Predict the structure.
Amino acid sequence: MQLTLPHADGTLRPYTLRHPRAPFGAVEAGPLNRTVYAAAHVVVDPLRTRDPWDSAPTLDWDATLAFREHLWRLGFKVAEAMDTAQRGMGLDWPTARELIRRSVAHAKTIPGADLACGVGTDQLIPGAHTTLADVMAAYAEQIEAVESAGGRIILMASRALAAVARDADDYRRVYGDLLRQCRGKVILHWLGEMFDPALAGYWGTTDLDAAMQTVLGIIAEHPQRVDGIKVSLLDPQWEVWMRSRLPAGVKMFTGDDFNYGELIAGDGEHHSHGLLGIFDPIAPIAARALQALARGEVAEYRRLIDPTVALGREIFRAPTRHYKAGVVFLAWLNGHQSHFSMAGGLQSARDVTHYARVFELADACGALTNSELAVSRMRTFLQVHAGIAARTAA
């Protein structure tokens, strides 16, 4: 199968599909020796969403929940209502709360399904008079919503806290109170400023070493309340350094969508688990690779997972906060949804050549799970968005 793709230099070139038969089209769950969460996207209903730049989205609940079933069938846990679901970047708190309620309820109908849900402060818009008490009240509201639905908590980084906190002591106070408030163990969530510029200086400093000491101190004070911490800094040295210093029983969840392959494999002494947005589009490949890792077949794991890294680096390239567009684009190409529309109209955040490159790299690593459909939809996309006439030759 062949089609014409645009390139960054403005040229058009023919491209022949490397995998006319999808190599990962029929993957099943198997034993794993890592705890892995796929942060899942949401599917909007484009016929009911009005003025997407200025209003909350209406979700296609059937397609949104069906995608979570897809992840559960492959053996992943789901990280619900996180930044991959455009939390705070198109998905408002009332819709996120309903998403959490529906997902938790749906998981109870699927044998083996598991999930944890994002808790933040996105209903609070910080201003000149916002206080730490306001931040804690916003967190408390969301904690209650998740726990009353029967969900477990991922304690997300807070834009409001980043705006209000004066120093590391404020973070220690807020997180200490929140951890004592939660009924069960939680996963802490450290999202670097490349994912959200409003989180610059989180933990009270721009010095990463000092920030690590602060969060390690918080965990050391409450180890029985922390299941693990997700670190998304896109720099493996910090994660490696931190995971070797975590208390026994506290997991390191990599959120590094550039270096996840090596971090999950580990260094022989320590390894990371996974809580990743990249798992959303590469779930079948990652499932098979992780199964190989669980069997002790490290070389096979690397053979499968390493080719996906180039795709991850393109999807998550700067400005990284727009990575959700590539994630949803691949979900559309693979038939998980009938359209390429996003909350907030975020599909417009990336250019046509980016999507063409995502298509190429997805083909290269085997992430296109329905080749004929993907080619057909890519041709349509290019004709509509770039005026590139579709080629019908196989």
About this structure: The chain has one domain: 26-322. The mean pLDDT is 96.
